[in-house]
Amino acid sequence: MDLPLVWFAIVGLMFVAYFMLDGFDFGVGLSLPILGRTDGERRRIINAIGPVWDLNETWVIVAGAALFAAFPEWYATMFSGFFHALVVLLLGLIVRAVSFEFRHQRDSARWRAGWDACIVAGSAIPAVIWGVAFANLAQGVPMEPHQGGALVTGGLLALLSPYALLGGATTLVLFLAHGTVFLSLKTDGELKASAHRLAGRALLGALVLAALFLGWTVVQHPSPLVVVLAVLAAVTLAGAWLANRAERDGRAFALTAATVALAVGTLLATLLVREGGPFVMPASNPAGDFVGLTVANASSSPYTLEVMTWAAVFSLPVIAAYQIWTYWVFRKRITADHVGAAH
């Protein structure tokens, strides 16, 4: 068994799970100033993700830990090369988490408005940066060999190519669509109707941006696997728009989740099919024998990967089962009566 490749797939699945789950959290936060016309509506919007948002972030923590253990060279190169962007991302996540907890601590409209703005910013910043980061992984970044590994040579501006910025815009609008579809599923009355209308507009915007971004990705990496995944992502996104139009909220949410998974899968597939790979972080400026970090040269020892595999076999099903149970417990819609009863 090729354990480095297995762990590339496991880490990839962890990030897919994270974007599917925390993606709608980001979308809900982005919708707050648009749908939350009254404090009661804003409380309902926040309460829709209140029981699950921190649980959804479990997957990025687990993915980061697995990345550190399974691919230390990839972890070191990416976290040093993307340092400034990742610091901003973490600050955004921290501000968003604090806002959820502090918003209701004082009975002041100005106090709540300030924390609501932080929720929006803390949702928008990670949504954009994650798209920019994964677009850079697919496109490749300028690197040079360094102490047996690699070192990113470009600064922050080197990461902001037109392709990467389009990736950030795509994830921003796609997460907004994913989140508003979730609100349609979790609320009722006028708030549900408003979320349904916003979801329709966001899904159309996501269709346009995703078509441009995934089309550009296919042009750069025209392999059958990348083409199939990109086409499936477009089909599921179009299906989500049709399901939302028919007010089939559960189906629309399942299809937006599938779109997120397929879009991330498309970017990860580019690393597998790139010549000289499979890669974890290709160089955009290959020179001689140095082409970047591959699955083979960036991975830990076989013994480390074997121990990690046994740990994953027992721990990952427990994490998934607990998350499924949590969603089942908090499956009901958030109504105005629920919010009123909580205060």
Automatic annotation (TrEMBL):
<keyword id="KW-0349">Heme</keyword>
<keyword id="KW-0812">Transmembrane</keyword>
<feature type="transmembrane region" description="Helical">
    <location>
        <begin position="114"/>
        <end position="135"/>
    </location>
</feature>
<keyword id="KW-0479">Metal-binding</keyword>
<keyword id="KW-0813">Transport</keyword>
<feature type="transmembrane region" description="Helical">
    <location>
        <begin position="252"/>
        <end position="273"/>
    </location>
</feature>
<feature type="transmembrane region" description="Helical">
    <location>
        <begin position="6"/>
        <end position="35"/>
    </location>
</feature>
<keyword id="KW-0472">Membrane</keyword>
<feature type="transmembrane region" description="Helical">
    <location>
        <begin position="307"/>
        <end position="330"/>
    </location>
</feature>
<protein>
    <submittedName>
        <fullName>Cytochrome c oxidase assembly protein</fullName>
    </submittedName>
</protein>
<feature type="transmembrane region" description="Helical">
    <location>
        <begin position="155"/>
        <end position="177"/>
    </location>
</feature>
<keyword id="KW-0408">Iron</keyword>
<feature type="transmembrane region" description="Helical">
    <location>
        <begin position="56"/>
        <end position="76"/>
    </location>
</feature>
<keyword id="KW-0249">Electron transport</keyword>
<dbReference type="InterPro" id="IPR003317">
    <property type="entry name" value="Cyt-d_oxidase_su2"/>
</dbReference>
<comment type="similarity">
    <text>Belongs to the cytochrome ubiquinol oxidase subunit 2 family.</text>
</comment>
<keyword id="KW-1003">Cell membrane</keyword>
<feature type="transmembrane region" description="Helical">
    <location>
        <begin position="198"/>
        <end position="219"/>
    </location>
</feature>
<feature type="transmembrane region" description="Helical">
    <location>
        <begin position="225"/>
        <end position="243"/>
    </location>
</feature>
<feature type="transmembrane region" description="Helical">
    <location>
        <begin position="82"/>
        <end position="102"/>
    </location>
</feature>
<dbReference type="Pfam" id="PF02322">
    <property type="entry name" value="Cyt_bd_oxida_II"/>
</dbReference>
<keyword id="KW-1133">Transmembrane helix</keyword>
